[in-house]
Amino acid sequence: MLSQRLVGWLVSFLLLVFPSLPVVTATGQSGAYERIGPIYQAYRIAVEVWGADQKKILPALADMEGTHPKGGANFREMENFLDSEDFDEDFYKDEGIDINDPEPHKTAIHLYYSTNLGLLPLEKIFAGTSAGWPYTIEQIRTVLRDAHDEMEKKGKLDDIKPYRERLEACHVEISRFRQSEMEGGNNGKKGASKDIKAKWPAAKVVVSTTEWEHDTTAKLYAVDVGATVAGSPEGTFKIEEVEAWVKGYGSNEGDSNVSKNHYKVLEAHRATMSMERGLLANPSCK
Hints:
It is a single chain. By secondary structure, the protein is mainly alpha-helical. The protein is built from twelve helices and four strands, in the order αβααααβααααββααα. The protein has helices at 4-17, 28-50, 75-83, 89-93, 104-114, 122-125, 133-154, 161-184, 192-199, 225-231, 239-247, 257-281; strands at residues 23-25, 119-121, 207-212, 215-223. The strands form two sheets. Strands 1-2 form a two-stranded antiparallel ribbon. A hairpin with a 2-residue loop joins strand 3 and strand 4 (215-223). Helix 2 packs antiparallel against helix 8 (161-184) and helix 8 runs antiparallel to helix 12. It is elongated. The chain starts with a helix and ends in a 5-residue tail after the last helix. 39% of the residues are buried.
């Protein structure tokens, strides 16, 4: 099996050689959660609302013989289709994962260590999609909004609530890991923690490392603004300057393309998360 590092290199190479491909890098823990949450939960919500023959999301699955008890595809079937895999039921069941309703954290860990998550073929999620992952996330948000409105009219919002709770759990972890990747990369030495030196060469960057509570071998990184300012030569910058720069990292003209992509994806996910939280707290909110 290819290592995660090699997979990442191959993904970068493909994007360099074929920049117009309608695919997106969705690796690591965040990539696993993106499959479990925004894609699978939105698909299951769509099936619950419009039936197994719906084509609002993952349209090709409507023409497949899915085996989910409520119609349509289960997670194994969707994942095999989406990533062109051929995992059998035991691949999940041996880890205690319910292929119809996968628990997000256990499933994300299993996918991360047991598969080679790479490019997401966006055209499989929405036919004709070529505008990138952030736009695809916006399309998913539209499906979720339409589903909410439809089930509200029918008085059946509780029927899709379990999927939305799973989606919320995934959004939280996506936000954490993508922010970590932005600030420290995959080893605490990339992203903002590296690029801050281009803006302030004298900076003595301090990165905080936190063990992920669901798998302590995974780490979350963040620029420790206070410690960075305190450890750098006096007058290098002010705390407010560093806080603003880190917060806006990925949105500035001179930032790296990787950080810009992370920023756009994060903004799109957080917009969906905010919408969902608002609708759950106030179902009649328009």
